[in-house]
Amino acid sequence: MASSRSSQNRRDTGESSRPAHVPVLLKEVLHFLQLEPGLTVVDGTVGAAGHSREIARQIAPSGLLIGIDRDALMLDIAAHQLSGLSSRLVQASYAELPQVLARLAIPAVDRILLDLGLSSDQLADESRGFSFSSAGPLDLRFDATQGEPASELVARLGEQELAGIFERFGEEPHSLRFARNLVAFRARRPIRTARDLAEAVAGGGGKVAPRGSHRRGGRHPATRVFQALRIAVNHELEQLETALHGGLYQCLKPGGIVVVISFHSLEDRLVKQAFRESKSWQLLSPKPITASPAEQRFNPRSRSARLRAAKKLLGPKQN
Ligand SMILES: C[S@@+](CC[C@H](N)C(=O)[O-])C[C@H]1O[C@@H](n2cnc3c(N)ncnc32)[C@H](O)[C@@H]1O
Fold first, then answer.
1. Mutational pocket test of ligand 1: of 22, 27, 70, the residue with most ligand atoms within 8 Å of the beta carbon
2. Contact 90, 64 (CB under 8 A)
């Protein structure tokens, strides 16, 4: 876990901090969180503070927003967005929430939000490699000081291991073909940038992509491979499982509410199972909440969003 800072004394990052990210399902998040002045709320994936800014306003003047993100650059944007509002920002993983709260001497909180995955600002950052067209290094880590960049992972692993990652974390039907393409490509030249990876997967360097795999449904053939590698280098599913099987429950006050937005079925399945199977949660959204057609038109990122909300029960649920 890295540093914590209050929103009063951070550097003003100015115009360059204006976020590109549009918060997803904002109205629905606010509906399920049932906010009121004085609450203490954790945004475990604060990002560009699109949700957090509105939350901080609704719990003012006596409430406190605790914004967590693994990415220091996102925390800079969040700091700018939250200036003048009561907040504490911490560079950490939401999986470390119990330790974060212990350091802040806060025993438990009223609400927790997780809006999983990647922000549009990270996608737009050429130096991170999140976008196919990026000529910057293929990194894909949220916190570039921890773990292994994706360029090292794709250089190190064998064909079968790569195919396993593409299948498990990307649900990629052509996982073995794409892994083979990648291995053939890297034998000719190293995969250093996101653009290299996109080219390698699509069969650049002599190999041909499988029939029908190009632009499936308008998507680049490497879409699922990028997702899989990002999940792998950030250990995203392990982080989510850690939070779902302990941290969230432990850190919420009885009667407290958690809202989770996920963007692919691997995450959504974990959230659904954790809330359904545990006797500690009352489901507030028996079915996942999805974005309205109008929101999907306005913000295409919202198309895959699934929101689930649950309340921490005072005692075990009676079946
Ligand atoms: C979809 S964005 C959040 C956007 C935010 N709700 C907003 O409206 O601006 C997800 C954010 O979560 C961060 N993130 C991903 N995994 C994380 C983790 N395990 N712990 C903390 N932050 C994480 C990413 O760095 C990214 O900034």
1. 70
2. no
- Closest listed residue to residue 230, CA positions, set 77, 128, 90: 128
What pTM did the predictor assign? 0.91
Query: Ligand 1 — pocket residues by CB below 6 A?
Result: 21, 23, 44-45, 47-51, 68-71, 74, 93-95, 115, 117-119, 142, 239
Q: Which residue has the tokens 């438990």?
A: 108
pLDDT in tens, 161-200: 999 999 999 999 999 999 999 999 999 999 999 999 999 9
260 exposure class (CB count in 10 Å sphere: 0-12, 13-18, 19+): buried
Residue whose pair of structure tokens reads 């925390």 in the numeric block: 75
**Enclosing H/E stretch for 196:** helix 194-201
Residue 142's identity, in one-letter code, is F
How far is Cα of residue 127 from the mean position of the Cα atoms in its chain?
18
CB-count exposure of residue 154 (10 Å: 0-12, 13-18, 19+): buried
| 56-95 residues labelled b (16+ CB within 10 A) or e (exposed) | bebbeeebbbbbbbbbebbbbbbbbbbeebbbbbbbbbbb
